[in-house]
Amino acid sequence: MRQEAVMKSAGLAAVLSALINGLGQIYNGQILKGIIIIVVQMINGALTAILIGWVLLPIVWVWAVYDAYRGAEKINRSSSRRAGRELW
């Protein structure tokens, strides 16, 4: 059975994660990771009441956007290699 290469838009993954942290990971197929990031950011939002959230919220936000972008690039590299092997 032949599988088609599944390409993900790294830009779209980053934008989705910038809008709602974890959504980019879900788009990339990393469902559990995305849900965990969403829950962590909800907790960070609640922690803004005691100031630590003001530090953690932007740190996790930047990391989630970067991780979604890099995750899509990794998926694309892996798909390209698989597609290249199927040709031979």
What does it look like?
Helix content is about 75%, strand content about 0%. The chain is an all-alpha fold. The longest helix is centred in the C-terminal third of the chain and has 36 residues, at about 50-85. The chain is elongated. The protein starts with 9 loop residues before the first helix and ends with a helix. The mean pLDDT is about 90.
How are the SSEs placed, and which strands pair?
Layout: H1 10-19, H2 23-27, H3 31-47, H4 52-87
Helix pairs in contact: 1-4, 3-4
Q: Which segments are poorly predicted (pLDDT under 50) over 5 or more consecutive residues?
A: none
Structural class: mainly alpha
Number of helices: 4
Radius of gyration: 16 Å
What fraction, in percent, of the residue positions are helical?
A: over 70%
Secondary-structure element string: HHHH
Arithmetic mean pLDDT:
89
Extended strand count: 0
Brief rundown of the structure:
This protein is an all-alpha fold. Helices cover 77% and strands 0% of the residues. It has one domain.
